[in-house]
Amino acid sequence: MRLASALNLRGFLVEIWCYGGATALDDELRAQGVVVRNGCAGSQWAKVKMIRAWAAAFKPDLMHGFMKRASSLAVLARGFSRRPIVIGSDLSTATYGKRDFTLWSSLVLFAFAQRISTQTELNRQSLHRLAPWLRGKTSVIRNGLDLRDFVPADDFPPEAPFRFVSVGTVYAIKNPLRMVEAVALLVERGCRNFVLDWYGRLGLAGDDQPSECYMQCMQKVKELGLEPYVCFHGECAQISEAYRSAHGLIHPSGQEGFPNA
User: Fold this and answer.
1) What is the DSSP string of 5-51?
2) Which uninterrupted H or E stretch holds 88?
3) Which ranges in the chain belong to alpha helices (H)?
4) Full-prediction pTM beyond 0.70?
5) How does pLDDT run across 41-76, given as a tens digit for each residue?
6) For an engineered disulfide with 113, which of 88, 97, 124, 256 has Cβ 3.0 to 4.6 Å away?
């Protein structure tokens, strides 16, 4: 959204195609002058045909596919031509099994994009290890961050417990179970004047469907009597305030493809 809006403000003609239909972000983008088009198609080939028809009408100089499927569609929609330029983006290889069809089909199709962008050095290394043919065309473009949004408050009462905060969806790659074990170690060593607040969805499908990992964490919390020290709050709309309410951040994630935290 920010990239599209910034390009539009600088005088570039930008259109976004949401091939899965309307999204909650469309109105905000349109309010900033960005053209958003929506369409729904069943099969992958129907989506390719839909994107190809749009590209023939819009005649873009550059297509940027956001994440694996969209990047693959951009390559397939362009076909054997070298125009428009296609930039694919890959946010994480961590959530895909080594035999996953989506992963490998995308890595093959990425070979036909002019550039690949990703957001962490770790993921670039992972891409190069899995697909050596992408060496030389992969760039790391990190998230921008306004540090003023994340400065801790300066009015904590002296007797207030030290507040840790962790942010992320509660599932295995984010390492929450290891985090609970670390809390247990602190308590065992006599550190009691602290709390850990974890903010983020309780499972990949949303708060109404907690992950198995979340259930394991809660079982461990109860077994070890850590209820006074650990709290999983679920999704938080005011995440900047959650950061500012803490003294320190703990980020235990095993890998980050799109590192907002």
Assistant:
1) HHHHHTT---EEEETB---TTHHHHHHTT-EEEE-B-SSHHHHHHHH
2) strand 85-89
3) 2-9, 26-31, 44-58, 68-78, 101-110, 121-130, 176-188, 212-223, 239-244
4) no
5) 778 888 888 888 998 899 999 999 988 888 998 999
6) 88
